[in-house]
Amino acid sequence: MLEIKNLHVSVGGTPILNGVDLVVPEGEVHAIMGPNGSGKSTLSYTLAGREDYEVTAGEAVYKGQNLLAMNVEERAREGVFLAFQYPVEIPGVSGMYFLKAALNAQRKQRGESEVDAIEFLKIARRNIKILEMDDELVRRSLNVGFSGGEKKRNEILQMAVLEPRLAILDETDSGLDIDALKIVANGVNGLRGPDRTMLLITHYQRLLSYIVPDCVHVLSGGRIVASGDKDLALTLEREGYAAYEAAAA
Amino acid sequence: MAANIDSIDAARELTRGEYKYGFVTEVEEDRAPKGLDENVVRFISAKKGEPEWMLEWRLRAFRAWRERFLPAGDPTWANVRYPKIDYQDSYYYAAPKSQEDRPQSLDDVDPELLAMYDKLGIPLQERAALAGVAVDAVFDSVSVATTYKGALAEKGIIFCAMSEAVREHPELVRKYLGTVVPYADNAFATLNSAVFSDGTFVYVPPGVRCPMELSTYFRINAENTGQFERTLLIADKGSYVSYLEGCTAPMRDENQLHAAVVELVALDDAEIKYSTVQNWYPGDKNGKGGIYNFVTKRGTCRGRNSKISWTQVETGSAITWKYPSCILQGDNSVGEFYSVAVTNNHQQADTGTKMIHIGANTRSTIVSKSISAGYGQNTYRGLVRIQPKARNARNHTQCDGLLLGDRCGAHTVPYIEVKNSAARVEHEATTSKISDDQLFYCMQRGLSAEDAVNLIVNGFCKVVLKELPMEFAVEAQKLLEVSLEGSVG
Amino acid sequence: MSVLDTYAEEFASAAPSLPGAEVDWLDAHRRASFQAFLDNGVPTPRLESWKYTNLRGLGEAALPLAPRDIDGIDRGTLAPFVLDGIDCQVLVFVNGRLRADLSDDGQVSDAFAVSLAAALRTGHPDLRAMIGPASAAPEDALRSLNSAFMMDGAVIRVAPDSRPSRPLHLLFLTVPQDTATASYARNLIIAGRGSAMTIIETHAALGHGSLAEGSAGEGSYWTNATTRIVLESGAQLRHHRLQDDSLAAYHLAATSVDIAADAHYESFAAALGAKLSRHEIDACLSGEGARCDLRGIYLGRDKQHLDNTTQIVHSAPGGYSRQVYRGVLDDHAHAVFQGKVVVAQDAQRTNAHQLNQNLLLSESAEVNSKPELEINADDVKCSHGATTGALDEEALFYLRSRCIGHREASHMLTEAFVVELVADATIPAFGGWLRGRLAAWLAGAPPGRSIP
Questions:
Q1: What pLDDT is stored for residue B138 in this prediction?
Q2: Do B447 and A101 touch (CB under 8 A)?
Q3: Of residues C294, C362, C296, C372, the one with CA closest to residue C334
C-alpha cells in the first residue's frame, strides 16, 4: 500500500529526513514513534504534500502510484487523509458545511455522485454520535474556540465521513485527557479495516494501548532506526529514546 | 505562497469570468443636448412634467454646482485616481422614445425592454407572481414599469418612481427631499440634485410593516449617459421596510459616471433595512472602462428608538466612492453598516461609513470586510463621531482586510472623534492574507485551491452576507465567486 | 506686516550669529529650509495630518530666540530635574544651548556626545549627510523652520558594538522670560552597528517647579525640537522622552528614526505639560528584520491639547512594529492620536500592531483618534485598535463595595490604566519617577505640582 524508499526531505534548506525506509502493507496500522525533532511531523506533511517540504531524494509509492508526483488535492482524492496535530480555524465556515464540500469535491473527482444535504446529514450524524460529539459543535465555525479534545475529535469525524484509504494521524493523542483519548481511539478503531491503512504518529506509548498497532517504528535523526511489534512501544516507554538517539547519530 | 504552484497557475489561466451581463439594447432614445447648463436642467424638468418648485430646487443645485464645485474640481482626498471628468462631454438625460407616456400596465412596455429584463434574469411577471417582490425597473433615466403598486397601495405604502412621486405626492417629497443630503452637500450630490433623472420613492405610513422586500434594478444604457438616480425612503412612526438595490450595466469603453443620492428618514420607532448588491461593470483586465460609482447615501434616525441598517456587497465598478451613513439623532436610535467590498484587477474602492451620534444611548455597529486581489486598491474610510450630548453612546467597529495576491493594497483610515466621556467606542482592524495553513487544510481534504479560497472568503464575509435578504445572499455569494475568479495565488 | 514677514525678519537678524554661519553648505541649507517654510507657512488644519491641531495660538508674530545668557543656574538648581536612583551622563541645555559647566563630560564610555553648535561650526560633511536636504512638503514646515534656526542640541555617536552602561540624559531646560521666546534644538544620534544604548530626553521649564514636581512656570515659550536617529544594523536604542513643559508653552517636536536590518528602536514618550504639544514620530524600518516599539502616555487637563502623530513605514521584509499609546483626559483637555502604518509592496512577513486607548474623566474632554493602515504586501499580519471610554462602572462599583471611596477608586483604576504600560516599557528609574508624577496628577495637584 505504502512504500517509502530512502526519503530525504529538507525544510528551509535544513535536512530533516535523512533516508526514511518504510513499508506499510494494506489494512495495517503502523505506529511511528520518536523523540522531539526526529522528523515525525515532517514525514506526515511530506506524505500529505505540503509545499515547503522539499524532497531531495527518494520516493514514496502509494497504491502503486508515485505519491510525490501528485499535488495536495490529488492525494486527498486518492484517499490520503492527514489528521492534523494543530487543526486550523476557519472563521465563518461551519464544520458541517466544510465537510460536505470536501466530501463532494472528492466524490466528484472520482466520478461518483455528490451527496445532497439530507444524505450528508445522515452520514454526519451517525459519526457524530459514535464520537460522542455535540451536534452544535459542527454547526459552529470550523475549530473556532474548540478545545484541544474537540479539535481532535472533529478530525476523526472528518476521517470517518471521508473514508480515506491511507490515514495519517499526527500526534492525535497530544493534549487529550484519558476520557477524550478513549473516545477518539474508539472512533479510530471503528474505522480499521482491510482496505484502510493507518500511520499513527506519536511520542507517547499511551495511545497505542488503545489503538493497538501491527507494527511500531522508531524515527530518530530523520531515519527509521528500529522496527518491532507492539511491545517495542512498551520498551520505549520504560527506557526512553536515548539508545536510538545514539544510534541515529 | 499558496500550497501548490501548479494548481494556482492553472487557475490563473482560466478565463476571468467574462462579465456575463455585458450587452447593449438598441432602443431609440430621446436625449437632451450634450453638456450641462441651465437649459439642460430645464429640459429634464420639463420632460418629466415637474412643478415649478422642483425646477427651482434643481436650479439652485445647478448654480451651486457651477459656482462652487465645478471650479474647485472633484475632491481629491479619497484614495482613488481617475482621469479628469469632462462634465460637458456627456448627455444628462436619455429616455427610451417609446415611453412618451407612462405605461399603464406591462402590456404598454416596449417588448424590447422586457426582453432585456428577461436576459438579465429578472422576468417581471415571474418574479411578481412567484417571489412576491415588487420591482421598479429603471431603464436609464425613466422608470419603465412598476408592479405590485396595487397591493402596496392597500396598506397605504407608496412605492413609485421619483418622477411620479414629485407629481402625485408633492407634499411628502417637498417635506423630506434634501433634508438628509442637502442639495449642496458635496460635488456629486449637488450634480445629482440638478440633473437627477429618476429613482425610487417609498413612503411607509405609521405602524405599517411592509409585507415584501421592495427592490429596484438599474441599467445604464446610452453611451456617455451617467446615471443620476435619486431615492427617498421615508418610514413613518413605528413602520418597517426592507429595500433591496441591485444593479447591472453593459460593457462600455468610456467611463460612466454614476452619482446617485439616497436619503432615508426613520421616524420614532421605525426601522429601515437597505441592502445593496452592486455589480456595475468593473472595467476590463487592464483597467479600461468601467463605471465610476460616486454615491451619497445617508439615513437620519430622526425619531426615538429608530433604526437604519445598511448592508452592501460591492464587487463592481471601476471606482467606488461611497459612505452610507447614519445620523443618529433620536435617543436610543441604532445605526448599522455591514459591508463586503471587493477590488480585483485595477478596481479602486474608497468606501466606508459615517456614524454621527447626536442623541443619547445611541448605538452603532460597523462591520467592514474588504477583499483585494489583482492590482485592486481597497480603502475603508470611516468616521465615528460622538457629539457632546450623546451620553452613553456605543460604537463597535470591526474592519478586516483580506489580501489575495501581493500586488494589491488594503488600507484602513478610521476617524474617531469623541466629545462625550460616557460614550464607549471600540475599533478593531486586521489585515492579512489567507494563511497557508488554512489553504493546506482545505486542500488536504480534497478541495481545489480555487474552491478553498472561495470557501474561506465566504467564511470571511459570512457575518455580512447573513444580513442580506435570502435571495440577495445567494446572488451575492455567486457574485463574490465571479469577481474573484483568477485571483487565486 | 504678515506673520511670515515677521519670521523672515527674525531669521534675517538671527542668521549671522547662528552656529556655523560661516560654513557655506550649512548657510545654504538654512536658507533653503527657511524658504521652504515660507513657501508653506505654519501648518493649518487644512492639511490632513494637522486636521485636529490648530496652531493659531502661536500668534501673529514670530517669537524671538530665547536669550543665551542665563545666570543663577548651577548644579544645585538642576537637582530636581535629574532622575533619582540612576547614574546617568547628563548634558544640560538651557534655552536650547549647551551649558558645558552644568554638564558631564560628553564621553560616555564608547559613545560620545558633542554640542551640535560646536559640530556645526566645524562644518563636517558627515553632519551634512545626517541633517539631510531641505524638505518642501507642507507637513514638514516646522521641521524646515527648525533646520533654519537650529541653535544647538546633541550629536551623539555610539561606537559599533559598544554597550555603555550609563544612560545619556539630555535635559532641555527653558527659562521663561517676560515675553514669549522660541528655542530650536536639534539632536542627531547615530547608533553604530551592534551597539546598545539608552537615551533619556526631557523638556522642562525652570520656574516654580522641578522635574519631580513638574514645570509650573507661567512663562510662555515655544520649543521646536527635532531629533534624527539612525540605527545601524543590529543596533539597539532605547529612547525615553518626557515632555514636561510649562502649561503656557507650545511644544512642537519631531523624531525621525531609520532602523536598519535587525536593529531595534524602543521609544517611550510621555506628554504631560504644555498648552499645546505635538510630537511626531516617523520611523522607517528599512532593513530586514528591523523592530520598532513605540509606546507613550499623555495626561491632559484644563485646556491642554496633546497630539501624538506617528508614522511607521515598513519598507523591508520581516519587520515588526508595535505601538501602544494610552491617554487620560480631564476637564476640557483634548487629545489627538494619529498613527499610520505603511507597508510597502515588498515588505513581506511584516507584523505591525497598533493600539490607542483613551480614558475620559470628564464630560468635556475630547479625543480624536485616527489609526491608519496602508498595506501593499500580502504576507503580513497587521492590526490596529482604538478605544475610548470612561472608567468601567463595574470595576468602580467593585472597589467601592470593598469600602474604597469613589475618588480613590477612580484614582486606582486610572493609575492602573497608565502604570501597566509604564512598567512594561521603561527602565525602573524612569518608570518610578513617572508613577510619582501620575499620583500627583491624579491627586489634582495643580499641573506640575506634587503633594508634599
A1: 45
A2: yes
A3: C362
What does the block give as the cell for B174?
417637498
Binary contact (B444, A72; C-beta < 8 A): yes
pTM of the model: 0.82
* ipTM of predicted complex: 0.85
Contact status of B461 with chain A (Cβ, < 8 Å): yes
Total structural domains in chain A?
Answer: 1
Domain assignment of residue A78, given as a range? 2-248
Strand arrangement, sheet containing A14-24: A14-24, A2-11, A53-62, A65-66
Chain B with chain C: Cβ pairs closer than 8 A: 113
Q: What's the rounded Cα separation, in Å, for the pair C337 and B466?
A: 34
Across the interface, do B421 and C360 touch by the CB < 8 Å criterion?
Answer: yes
Mean pLDDT by 10 residues, chain C (452 residues): 89 91 91 94 93 88 84 82 84 91 71 83 84 89 94 92 91 88 94 95 74 50 94 96 91 96 96 94 96 96 95 96 95 95 94 95 92 92 92 80 80 87 85 85 58 30
Q: How many whole angstroms from its chain centre is CA C386?
A: 22
Mean of pLDDT values over B402-430: 92
DSSP A141-210: EETTT--HHHHHHHHHHHHHHH--SEEEEESTTTT--HHHHHHHHHHHHTT-BTTBEEEEEESSSHHHHH
What subunits make at least 3 CB pairs under 8 angstroms with B?
A: A, C
- The CB density around residue B401, as the number of other CB atoms within 10 Å, is 27
For residue B408, the chain C residue with the least C-alpha distance is C376
Q: With helix as H, strand as E and coil as C, how does C45-92 read? A: CCCHHHCCCCCHHHCCCCCCECCCCCCCCCHHHHHHHCCCCCCCEEEE
Is A81 in Cβ contact with B444 (below 8 Å)? yes
- Residues paired with C307 in a beta bridge: C278, C336
- Distance from C-alpha of A48 to C-alpha of B305, rounded to nearest angstrom: 56
Question: Mean per-residue pLDDT for B255-272?
Answer: 91
The answer to whether the CB of A129 falls within 8 A of the CB of A161 is: no
Whether residue B438 lies within 8 A of chain A, CB to CB, comes out as yes
Residues B101-105: contacts with CB under 8 Å, at least 24 apart: B102/B164, B103/B144, B103/B145
| A57–chain B Cβ distance below 8 A for any pair | no
- The span from the CA of C175 to the CA of B107, in Å, is 89
Q: How many CB pairs under 8 A join A and B?
A: 93
Percent of chain C with pLDDT over 90: 58
Residues 4-43 of A with CB under 8 A from B: none
- Give the model's pLDDT for residue C81: 83
Report residue B95's pLDDT band, with 50, 70 and 90 as the boundaries.
low
CA distance C451 to C252: 29
Touching subunits for chain C (3+ Cβ pairs under 8 A): B
**C-alpha count within 13 angstroms, C-beta hemisphere, residue B2:** 27
Report the distance separating Cα B379 and Cα B319, nearest Å.
Answer: 11
Structural element, H or E, at residue C396: helix C393-401
Within 8 A by CB and 6+ apart from B452, the residues are B438, B439, B442, B443
Identify the closest residue of chain B to C361 by CA–CA distance.
B421
Burial class (CB in 10 A: 0-12, 13-18, 19+), A69: exposed
Identify the three-state secondary structure at position B109: coil
CA angle C124, C128, C132 (to 5 degrees): 165
The residue of chain B with its CA nearest to that of C350 is B432
Cβ proximity of B193 and B45 under 8 Å:
no
CATH number of the domain to which A163 belongs: 3.40.50.300
Looking at the DSSP bridge assignments, the partners of residue C231 are: C191, C259
pLDDT at residue B429 is higher than 90? yes
